[in-house]
Design goal:
By secondary structure, the protein is of the alpha/beta class. Helices cover 40% and strands 23% of the residues. The chain is built from 9 helices and 12 strands. The strands form 3 sheets. Strands 4-3-5-12-6 form a 5-stranded mixed sheet, with helices on both faces. Strands 9-8-10-7-11 form a 5-stranded mixed sheet, sandwiched between helices. A hairpin with a 4-residue loop joins strand 1 and strand 2. Helix 1 packs across helix 2, helix 1 crosses helix 4 and helix 2 packs across helix 3. The longest helix has 28 residues. The radius of gyration is 24 Å and the shape is globular.
């Protein structure tokens, strides 16, 4: 039984480590405690909660249904406590607090600089932390309270999240500088039917990937996808080295000093939308100011 009859910070940390490793010996090594001591702490936690969190046998450790639920809640609590501690330091130093922003690379070429400028002009006491991440990673981190707001390419959202579309744009081709095609000689994507393509991975955003595939469907062929990546710089480097042709949002045309060239695909109907996403019940008051800026932009 718990001597204090309450969950302590260390119990959540121990639980999260075992849930990550699904192996008590490895988790104990990571936590720098003995395995018996770790097992005892987990049993105490289970006794306090009145439920089994892990299934154990001689070979395997796995989460119970209750354990899976507690993992989601404990992850949020652990991250939120870390955020609160960090924010307290910032407020005590005279700042207004911290705003954690996630974004896909193209957002830095279109939306993020303008948004940061507005934040700095209207609320200079806000400290922003920027992290470039794929779409799904942003969603996961927003749900786990590791990000306050994310800028993603359109995709289905889980319940509890809000979305505001902030920027729509066309696509463009990315070709090696030495490629014979140029804007004047280019007719349609069909001209590139026999070329290998380098695309953003479906892991980047399933909805975005499907939209790219619809471009090829409209042109009457299936592309030869030679490589996939979640990072535009990787795609551009591969194109530069003659390993294929890319299709990317048009805002990515700027800011790269590489031996590549772009052809705008403004004649096709497909467009891609950048959306701001945040948790509906976010407890960060600074987020409401960003919502207002996005509404008025």
């Amino acid at each position: 039984m718990f001597m204090s009859n309450e969950i302590e910070h260390r119990h959540i940390r121990y639980f999260l480590t075992v849930a990550e490793e699904l192996h008590f010996s490895r988790a104990a090594e990571k936590l720098f405690i003995t395995q018996p001591a770790l097992s005892r702490q987990i049993r105490q936690l289970e006794e306090y909660l009145g439920a089994q969190l892990f299934k154990r046998d001689k070979r395997n450790v796995s989460l119970t249904k209750t354990g899976e639920y507690f993992l989601e809640e404990a992850t949020f609590l652990f991250n939120h406590l870390a955020f609160v501690k960090q924010n307290i330091r910032r407020v005590s130093d005279g700042e207004e607090g911290e705003l954690r922003i996630g974004f896909v690379g193209s957002a830095m070429h279109s939306v993020i600089p303008g948004l940061l400028k507005q934040i700095n002009e209207r609320s200079p006491g806000i400290h922003t932390v920027l992290t470039e991440l794929p779409n799904q990673d942003q969603i996961d981190r927003i749900r786990n309270d590791e990000l306050d707001i994310g800028f993603i390419r359109t995709m289905r959202l889980p319940s509890g999240l809000k979305k505001a579309d902030v920027f729509e744009e066309s696509f463009c081709l990315v070709l090696p500088e030495s490629h014979p095609l140029n804007p004047n000689s280019f007719n349609s994507v069909k001209d590139l039917e026999n070329e290998p393509f380098i695309l953003f991975s479906s892991q980047y955003s399933h909805g975005y990937f499907e939209k790219i595939m619809s471009i090829f469907e409209d042109q009457g062929f299936s592309p030869k996808v030679a490589h996939e990546s979640v990072h535009s710089n990787t795609i551009f480097r591969l194109v530069e080295n003659g390993l294929g042709i890319g299709i990317v949002p048009s805002s990515l045309k700027h800011g790269y000093d590489l031996k590549i060239k772009f052809i705008e695909l403004d004649m096709i109907p497909q467009r891609t939308t950048l959306s701001a996403v945040w948790k509906e019940e976010s407890r960060n008051p600074l987020l409401h100011r960003v919502e207002e800026l996005l509404k008025n932009s």
